[in-house]
Amino acid sequence: MPGTMDVTLRFERPSTCRLVVHRGAVSSAGPVLHGLTSADRVVWISDEAVAAKLGGQVESALSAAFRHVDQLTIRVGENAKTLSDFADLIARLHALGADRTTPLVAVGGGSTTDSVGFVAACYLRGVPYASIPTSLCAQVDAAIGGKVAVNTAVGKNMLGTFYHPRLVLVDPDLLDTCPDGAWRDGMAEIVKVALVADADLFALIESTGGRLRGDDETTDRVIRRAIRAKLRLLTPDPFEANLDRLLNFGHETAHAIETTTEHTVSHGAAVAIGVATATRIAVRRGLLDAASGDRVSAVLRAHGLPTGHAFSPAGLRAYRTALRQVALVRAGSMRVVLPTTIGAAVVANDVGIDDLVGLVGSDGSA
């Protein structure tokens, strides 16, 4: 009819990320990043603990290529992933005079890459950023994939987007500063991706008997294989248009556990519980043989990870409520990744909240 306009617009989201993995990679951070941007200024951001350990090394690497290097610190861990911390970091970037060409460099673990990445996505409608992950979890998972977010009172990562870094520098030498708890968290993510995408990686982890740390050669092999496995799953759907993603394995329940326990259970421990719970469901349904289920539990325990959580009755009620919120986020149904063999999995759309609550206990019962 006259005066009517009906147009379909299609917008592409060009996004490229250079991924560098080798020991000593952090020393080349400045020249490599400068090759991806025309800026003469860079701002690197870390928590206080990482700044104290690695500040001189990072500053020197960036100063080799950028005329102006600024540094900002944030709080440690999940405490930094709040809206108030987000607003504070935006204000400090503005005070520094950072513009749309100024790259941000997140130096730290998964919480740092999450929060700095989200700031980069929002500041001046988006500035380039890079990640130098310093924890095992961040090196194999959190820093790769562009999932950036902060937490709100409603739950973990409730405010975020997909915003891919220009550069990720994975330097296994930096893991010397990684606390044991953070190392275990990283192992949970490695077991997760191995179980759904790489049977040989799972066997390699299994062969270490829980004694991977300190074996540099094997650690490097594990890190490279874990990253390759994640990239195989990530590349076809880098913005998670399809909610049925194998990379969500264990996370369907993990975020609910973290929220319910107010993050006293770490992310990696929560993922391990989620992996073990989903594995028990798969065995009960006959999708996975019992022997493979036992292997999963044994590998998690060998690396110091839990296979369940003993909630109080009140805790179980809160956990059930948190799971309903996950169901809401996932379009109203529980899409749960269930392993079918070591190295392969399917997404089930009919797993009830009762199943997840009933099998969260360490012995397979609530």
Cα Rg: 21 Å
> What's the CATH class of the largest domain, please?
Mainly Alpha
CATH superfamily of the largest domain: Dehydroquinate synthase-like - alpha domain
Gap from first CA to last CA: 62 Å
- Return residue spans where pLDDT drops below 50 for at least 5 consecutive residues: none
The fraction of residues assigned to DSSP E strands is 5-15%
| Spatial ordering of strands, largest sheet | 1-8-5-4-2-3
Largest sheet: 6 strands, parallel
CATH architecture of the largest domain: Up-down Bundle
Total strands: the figure is 10
The figure for the number of domains is 2
- Write down the secondary-structure element order: EHEHEHEHEHEEEHHHHHHHEEH
- Average of the residue pLDDT scores: 92
Structural class: alpha/beta
What is the helix tally? 13
Helix percent reads 40-55%
